[in-house]
């Protein structure tokens, strides 16, 4: 995952991989069917990824405000021993790791859903064509190798 984070990265990833929004997956299948359960897992994982992205943006916003306040006003924290970022840096690192893990999990679920729905659809395979065989060839008895030749 690189580049800017879209507003709803989970929903966007489902659209990218499956061509539809997560909320549109479930109505495509009979209730309680295996495909419906898989569609629900995809939808929930997309929502989880979106929630983690929201948490990351919120935490990063707080840190950005604190750093901006310090840089513009040259204000140091009251207790210099606590540091400027305190636990925020760790929280952001953990959220980024969780976001990457959720992204990978969503990709796997989307691929499983795509494979399962592809296997569920009827495949149009061409039927073998029959070749007309002349009657003389069809009624002739097969010969053994070596028979019919004189030495």
Folded structure, characterized:
With 151 residues, the chain is mostly helical. The chain has one domain. Helix content is 58%, strand content 0%. It has 4 helices and no strands. α1 packs across α2, α1 runs parallel beside α3 and α2 packs antiparallel against α3. The longest helix is centred in the middle third of the chain and has 40 residues. It is elongated. The model has no long low-confidence stretch (mean pLDDT 81).
Give me some keywords for this one.
58% helix, 151 residues, mainly alpha
What would a concise description of this structure say?
The protein has 4 helices and no strands. It has 151 residues and is mainly alpha-helical.
Largest sheet: none
Q: Span from first to last CA?
A: 77 Å
How large a portion of the residues is in β-strands, by DSSP E?
under 5%
Work out the helicity level: 55-70%
Order of helices and strands: HHHH
Average pLDDT works out at 81
Number of strands: 0
Q: What is the number of domains?
A: 1
Uncertain parts: none
Secondary structure topology:
Layout: H1 9-18, H2 34-73, H3 88-120, H4 135-139
Helix pairs in contact: 1-2, 1-3, 2-3
